[in-house]
Design a protein that fits this description.
The chain has helices spanning 2-12, 29-35, 62-68, 86-101, 104-122, 155-164, 185-203; strands at 17-19, 40-44, 56-60, 128-134, 140-146, 175-177. By secondary structure, it is an alpha+beta fold. It has 2 domains: 2-101, Aspartate Aminotransferase, domain 2, CATH 3.40.640.10; 104-203, Aspartate Aminotransferase, domain 1. The strands form 2 sheets. Strands 1-2-3 form a 3-stranded mixed β-sheet, sandwiched between helices. It has a 3-stranded antiparallel β-sheet with strand order 4-5-6, covered by helices on one side.
Length: 204
């Protein structure tokens, strides 16, 4: 789909910016869309790169990047509220250098292992289905579904309560993602989810 958009934009003379904030891995995507002819590519400094969450990368045509910089310090343009400190920039560069040296297959295997373990820890909870599923990005998530006659909560209620609980878990109402979990944090997540759903079953 992005390649088709790039082709149409190039043919019509319309600049194309690709938002690939969530499209790492694979590491090849760092350069894929520029090579395909995109005019600008936006990359999150957090997520897979695991740099500061407030950072990002804008890559592409020099003239368009120069135009974007008109909203950067010291000018008080629309970008002032999104300014990034020099310390964060160094943090992003260090994280990027680390990321491109990683063994990608080993990294993804680690995420998948956590997802499989996490799904296994939740499978015996009545009314809850925790399944290990590959996503469109090429690594695994844990998909949660439940019988609302046993666990009488909507997805929105589960999302809100998990976010406001302790420890706080960000659940997108579809999947539990292990991509950014540090070693051992999958245990915290499994314990929190088990406690949460078992308590809701007792209430119901």
């Amino acid at each position: 789909m992005p390649d088709e958009i790039i082709e149409i934009g190039n043919r019509k003379g319309v600049p194309v910016m690709i938002d690939m904030a969530s499209d790492l891995p694979p590491v090849a995507n760092l350069t894929r869309f520029i090579k395909a002819g995109a005019d600008l590519v936006v990359i999150s400094g957090g997520k897979a790169i695991r740099g500061p969450n407030s950072t990002g990368i804008l890559a592409g045509r020099k003239d368009l990047i120069k135009a974007a910089r008109l909203h950067n310090a010291p000018k008080n343009g629309i970008g002032r509220g999104m300014k990034v400190g020099k310390e964060e920039i160094i943090g992003l560069m260090t994280a990027l250098e680390r990321y491109i040296k990683l063994d990608e297959a080993e990294m993804i295997a680690g995420w998948d292992k956590k997802a499989q373990w996490l799904a296994d820890q939740l499978r015996d909870i009545p009314g809850l289905q925790a399944s290990y599923e590959m996503n469109t990005f090429g690594y695994a998530d844990v998909e949660l579904t439940w019988d609302e006659s046993i666990i009488p909560l909507s997805r929105e209620e589960v999302m809100k309560r998990l976010k406001n609980g302790n420890p706080s878990i960000i659940y997108d109402a579809n999947t539990v993602r292990t991509m950014q979990l540090e070693e051992g944090e999958e245990i915290l997540v499994a314990n929190r989810l088990r406690t949460f759903f078992e308590e809701e079953i007792k209430k119901g």
